[in-house]
Amino acid sequence: MPSKRETASSSRLRMFLDSRASGWSALVPVIALAAGLLFGVTAATAQGEDLRSDIQTVPDLIRDRAHDNSTRELAVERLRREVDEATVQAGGGDGQLQALTDDIQGMQGPAGFAAVSGPSLTVSLDDAPLDAADLPEGYDVNDIVVHQQDVQGVVNAMWRGGAEAMMIQDQRVISTSAVRCVGNTLILQGRVYAPPFVITAIGDQEAMRTALDEDPTVSVYREYVDAIGLGYEVSTSDKTGMPPYSGQGQLKHARAVR
């Protein structure tokens, strides 16, 4: 026969369990209501579509922005032609405006806003055809890819060698164009490129070749060409045509070179 202490203990246990069950019973409708509200909001937001499909990866985002930039460049070029045509028409009877228009057109060539052609020098930079397991001792994976400073070094050397016009990949660039690399991809004026990176400049071929040979950044790159096989090719052409620069001129301060 249970003792009084055992009977009292059992009674208290039943009371505790009954109170816990009553508490959970009261919470069940609240939880159900909250879950229903959550499902309803999700369904209204999705509108029959998969919400996860809206999540973009970085490469997808870059491709979308590159496409947008290409579309806007076409629109800018169209508007620029319309402005030029309207300016010519408006300046027909105004001598001062016509003189300013002539000055602007005369400066378009040196500034890069006019198509040009002439003898050119081309430099191609490429990653080394090695895997991480094939690397010589003392080198790592960063050494087998072309970096931003490598492209910039070639560009600077060619400008220094007297380049009159320049293209990187399929885009005309000017002296203020920014060269940026993310990993082993090049981002230029809103577009993304994979190696090999091709830089072509119109000008004195021998002077630009000499500038490349004497440039310290290019010299370091060529040491890695010999050591681990980075790509470096130089070629010339008697005549190369280049379109005008299609970007915006953002030069704010300048000083005459004396």
UniProtKB/TrEMBL annotation:
Residues 239-258 are annotated as: Disordered. GO terms for cellular component: plasma membrane. It holds the Pfam family DUF881. Belongs to the UPF0749 family. This is Uncharacterized protein YlxW (UPF0749 family). The lineage of its organism: Bacteria, Bacillati, Actinomycetota, Actinomycetes, Micrococcales.
